[in-house]
Amino acid sequence: MMQEKSIMNTKRKTLTKLVLLLGCFACFFGCKEMQGRHDETVYIPVEYDTVTVKISYPEKWTKNDKIIIWSMPPLDQDFFPDSIDANVNQLSLPPVLRSALLVSGYVNIEYTGRNDSIVILNRKYCIADLNTKAVDLDHLLEYLHSNKALRDKKIILIGYSEGGSINIKTASKRQSDISAMIQLAAGALPGKQITEYQKEQNFLATMLYITQNGRQDAMDRTTNRVSSLDSYHKADSNSVIQYLKENIEPVEDLISQFDNVDSIYFHLDSYLWNRWEKESLETKLFWINHFENYYRFFAGRITPNQITVRTFTPENYYPLIQCPVLAVQGTKDELIDCYPNIEKMDSLLVKGGNRRFESMILEGYYHSLVKGDKEHEYALYQNKVVSMHRKPNLHIEDSVIMKIIEWIDKQ
After folding, report:
1. Fewest Cβ atoms nearer than 10 Å: which of 39, 247, 316, 368?
2. Closest by alpha carbon to 207, among 239, 230, 232?
3. Same structural domain, 185 and 227
4. Mean pLDDT of the chain
5. Total structural domains in the chain?
6. What is the model's pTM?
7. What is the pLDDT of residues 185-220, one digit of tens each?
8. 3-state class of 204 per DSSP?
């Protein structure tokens, strides 16, 4: 058995070297032969998987002393598009900035996370999380050292949202490789503080969703049937707060009580199973007498990635960052509280002796770093018209993109 394992490991190492060699070979000759704007795909081996990397070359590679690395999987595992449609509802700053950087003469490098999965307590989860993405970024940096066309360049890391955490986790160990870092709507506050802020910001929409716009009959048919162990809930804000405290908070609190993903899921399963055993027959019939339906409702959103994001501790990494840092955040950021977050990032960098911190606070910009007037869908709640969902009619000011590129030019 040991001999078979040794043979498998030898084969895997040989295959890894072959894939890496072919990737370097293809990229090197592609860089020499292809002129003008073009993209190349490279596959970098990482442990038992590969990371797909897209290298985008500008029409004229005029800024060839630096390369830009986007340190997170953009747009739900897809690469940034080559064209930007300002009317698309998913408009955000990263793809617009990427396009502008290409026009300015910068090479952009993007990578996607892993597509494999893990099974915990017979439930399947995507393995990609903040930690694996940081490992993948580390492998990408190693790859650049072996690429003749891209090595010996100044590396500018750009991370949007979670990508900012990936930035600092990897860069804290590779200071000599990183020339500068841009944190776009990235968190420096503890995960629990960010989660509480998000609850406050999204409470109205949550309330209207749970009560189906304040209808007691809908509340009785749905929310008041999910569990027989909680209070009876009226279709008003106080009852929704009570519902969250009795049903949601105990589940989410388990994330911060245990040390690793396995123990969190073990206690999560035990907690919900014990609760299921106490539920009435009527409640069990509501869930078609199937515990997995019950489990998915209360714990389905607690993925390994959500666990690592919520338990991530920025204060362990920011003091180790010594390169120049630019933080860009909007005052209407609905996921991260802008001013406390910027202040925290600054103080953590200063704690480590880094005084090369600059911030761009964008008035009226949201977490996606766009701004503008909004059209709303409205709902009637307690005889009042309130806003429930927004249909964005948003834009990004050209001056914002120009200032970011000017900052990169100076590094």
Report:
1. 316
2. 239
3. no
4. 84
5. 2
6. 0.84
7. 999 999 889 988 998 888 877 888 888 888 899 899
8. helix
